[in-house]
Amino acid sequence: MLKLFTRKPAGHVRDSIALDLGNGRTVDVARVRHPRARSLKLSVDERGIRLTLPVRASQAAADRFLLAHREWLRARLEELALAHVEPLRPFVTARLPLRGDWLPVEWSRATSNRVHLADGVLHMQVRGAVDGMHASPALRRALQDFYMAEARADIARWLPDYLPDLPRAPTRITLKRMVSQWGSLSPAGVVALDLALVLAHPSAFRYVLVHELCHILHPDHSRAFWDAVDTRFPDWRDERAWFARDGRSLKATLHALLD
Question: By CB atoms within 10 Å of each CB, which of 117, 124, 210, 257 scores lowest?
Fold first, then answer.
């Protein structure tokens, strides 16, 4: 049975509905009325599920469209591993991803929201009243800050191995959430890396760092560039294949936890 529950609107043309997939799972679908839309369109990517409607489309038409495309949506979610990503839920979430593994979580109450790692366990400290179904923005920020700190620690360990062979060091290395890219190098020498990399196994993260550092030597993807990557990271082909196969689910996991 199709189950739809309206969420809190975000503006006049966007809200979210919960869709029962018919397999024991319910997913959120962002519903957006767009003035240039001429027909209903359902799309899925690492940011989630989106139903785009013409401004004058009826709710009944949207419900029928979702029901008619439920099988397609279920298959697409399984392909992208989005249906298996659970949101962060205080005192409910039992495991969280880090460096290619899922670590156990211990929850406690505290005077501030904080996340720290000790003896292979993620300790989640929560401030204030708790809604067991939804993490507060402050708690999600605390988890993001934790992932940022862990990613910076990894980069700090690896970077000294590669700097001596470069004509210059990157001017800065930043971490941010990227939609499609895993990394980039700006003309000013700033390396940007996707925060989701800290969820991957370390060699995958390290490969992306090496890839962007080699762009300091060669700004393109020429044979010389790949030779430079191969010299510094001989297993780059395996990691590139891994990203092609599993990378989008990595982005989807981070999106589900932090958004």
Answer: 117
